[in-house]
Here is the input.
Amino acid sequence: MREYKDQKRLERLERAAKAKQDILEKFRSRPAADDPAVLARAAERKATAQAREARQKERDERKRKEAEERAQREAIEKAEREARERREAVAKVIRDAAEAAERKAERDRRYAARKARQGPGVSPNRVQYKADAGLERTRALIVLRRGCEARFGPGCRAQNLSEPPRQP
Here is the structure.
């Protein structure tokens, strides 16, 4: 280390010893633990700490209450939102059904108008014949299923409905 021009080794040692002595004096001049001023400061610190703890407890209690209120509010909002969504879903189903009924009515109206335009050239019995044929096929299937269930037990389904079920 570089030495300063005015500092010699002895001067530096003397200054270090003086600094140590000052620190020791400062430590010794400190009041004792049973000194009234020290006791008053300790009591003041203790009261401050207790007040701080009380404020912290109040803050914690207030936060807890706010959290409970927020949870209640959120639960109410969630229930309201779910109820609103259910109402909207029901309204949508009703609206869709009404629209479907309107479409069907319009389709039926167009169909009736087309049939009216075609005039008497089309046999009205033809439509009835097709309906009767469909009814006969349905009756045959019912009889076939009943026969299958009678022979093989409930839940039996014939593989080919146009043929009677095979006997084992």
Summary: The mean pLDDT is 80. The two ends are 116 Å apart (CA to CA). The chain has two domains: 9-116, 128-168. Residues 128-168 form one domain.
